[in-house]
Amino acid sequence: xxxxxxxxxxxxxxxxxxxxxxxxxxxxDPYFTSKKFTELDIKPNLKQALQNQGYxxxxxxxxxxxxxxxxxxxxxxxxxxxxGKTLCYVVPIINQIYKRLAQPxxxxxxxxxxxxxxxxxxxxxxxxxxxxxxxEHIIRITRTGSIMHIAPVVHLLDxxxxxxxxxEISQQNMVNALTWSEWDVVVxxxxxxxxxxxMKDKKDPYDVNPKTVVLDEYDLLLGEENIxxxxxxxxxxxxxxxxxxxxxxNKERQFILCGATSPRKVGGINIQDEVKNWFVDLQVFKSExxxxxxxxxxxxxxxxxxxxxxxxxxxxxxxxxxxxTANKIIVFCNSMQRVQLVHEYLTRKGEMCLPYFASMPEEExxxxxxxxxxxxxxxxxLAATDLASRGIDFVGVEHVIQFDxxxxxxxxxxxxxxTARIGKKGRFTSFIRxxxxxxxxxxxxxxxxxxxxxxVFSHKRSLNKKEKKIAxxxxxxxxxxxxx
Length: 484
Hints:
Elements: E1 32-36, H1 44-52, E2 57-59, H2 60-70, E3 75-78, H3 85-101, E4 113-116, H4 120-133, E5 141-143, H5 147-150, H6 163-177, E6 185-188, H7 190-200, E7 212-216, H8 218-223, H9 225-238, E8 254-259, E9 265-266, E10 269-270, H10 271-278, E11 283-286, E12 297-303, H11 310-323, E13 329-332, H12 336-348, E14 353-356, H13 362-373, E15 381-384, E16 399-402, H14 409-416, E17 426-432, H15 437-447, H16 453-456, H17 465-483
Parallel strand pairs: 3-8, 3-11, 4-6, 4-7, 5-6, 7-8, 12-17, 13-15, 13-16, 14-15, 16-17
Antiparallel strand pairs: 1-2, 9-10
Helix pairs in contact: 2-3, 3-4, 6-7, 7-9, 11-12
């Protein structure tokens, strides 16, 4: 793990930036392996597509897992953010479909792939990856809830139709569109797909029958309260042997799980037990840097005095941004209100900044990501909640700022993972307030390799119980000493 050279200084005035840094210049390791995509047992047209997109060498997790996935093995991929896990399943799925199309005599109804991801943004990104590599436009791929499903009812918007009725028509249109004979790949969030299945089952519960099922960001899909129930319903359908439409034939499916973090528990659910219960003969592929803070990231922090006004806090943020040489910066906040505060202040100061949070309309969120990633626009800063921290591959982000310190190690790891992707370097700045000191001190110890991630933080939005008790006991002892 990394050596850390943090030093504490007294905060002299509210506009002084106080940093504690370490450098990654001395221990850069080769990011790619010596294995080439041309060495994989895949179709020639797929090899050519990879070459056209600039893919030559495999990353560590790709080199570890790709051969097994191509052979149809159930696989769990554990690797740091930005390590190329998406290609680990996209390439084998495309190859599987190409091989199937070359065998018209193959009448096995189990074919194609179903891919689950926690957000519509990540679904869109996965969809785009398939499109880029399927350069002959052979594969039929769709996303549930995409504009193609909504478009047929747009003409009704001008008519006086009850909104609930309009929603029902739109839902039915999506159900009708989810006909497995029409598609090779379906990408969806679990909640949306589970809802469609509940409606589709009334007519044809056996229609959707994928050969491969992918769970991207599997810890969220199996553990997040709002998503886990829907994911479980889908797994009961395709992975379960008992009480499933497909019964024993489910054993013939391939399951691929991907994650940049793998906590023991999420929201009281034991994720590791869930994985063991659902998936048979699961091969685990883990990169060397999994659950480690990237050595390619230079860390620094800014001390924020207690009781400072929000306007002064954002002024400090603006000073950090002005001093940054990064072309693209993401500022993470813990709430929509804080995102709006940052966006409004920076915009008034002339910064090209975009806001991004979950309650924005879907189309508006997509437009924000498009503008931030596109070289045609000059937006330098994205102020966002943790919605932007999971799975999304931002283009060229060189600097990530935690304006609000992450509430757990998983959030911090995923935030930092938006920079230093695909072998590049990055910068990670954390604003530290007095209430964050205990968490931050533990974070420093993780960086130094003195503490294991799971031993320090829970996946919930706080320190685990053991750490809380230590903190409370320390506070009590300090109070007793002050009284004496």
